[in-house]
Amino acid sequence: MASIRALAQxxxxxxxxxxxxxxxxxxxxxxxxxxxxxxxxxxxxRAEGRVSLRRTMRRMAEKNPAMAIFLAKNKxxxxxxxxxxxxxxxxxIVDAEDAEC
Length: 101
Known about the structure:
Largest sheet: none
Helix content: 55-70%
Number of domains: 1
Order of helices and strands: HHHHH
Distance between the termini: 90 Å
């Protein structure tokens, strides 16, 4: 069961888990149906993997501005915004002496 949990932590699919265990995918799925704790072990492993990834990303954000920006946008809802409003008039002054008619 420890190997199933370890594989789930790295987001291995059921097919990959079955292959590593040396059984057919259908055999693994039947085993999972007969032993309900296997599904719990897989879900717990996947959750631990997600937490580990988040922890790594937060550590990376301390030294990597791109990761900090990614987390700010995805976890804090921040976004890049460009202000394109025209806030003033443009005045063009043509000196009559320099103008050619």
